[in-house]
């Protein structure tokens, strides 16, 4: 079991592959309760880091979805404006046809009265 945070003295040449293998703890031995508490906190911290990473991934996914939805909204807004313009054009054509129809009816009625 590797216990982090405990101070020790060791040969300064240990990492270079040489040295005299001297090693001694500076701190007194850690009680089982402290070890248990430390390991529990370490696991909790690692669990929190995993949750944070998971949340960051979800956030990144949601931001991507939001970007795509904004693009869809922009596209649909352009399409809506185009449809509104087409509707205005059709309404103008409809009014013109109605006026022509009224004129034809008036002309026909006026002609039949004169005859």
From TrEMBL:
Full protein name: Zinc finger GRF-type domain-containing protein
Coiled coil segments of this chain: 59-93
Organism: Forsythia ovata
Membrane keyword on record: yes
Keyword line: Coiled coil, Membrane, Transmembrane, Transmembrane helix
Transmembrane segment boundaries: 96-114
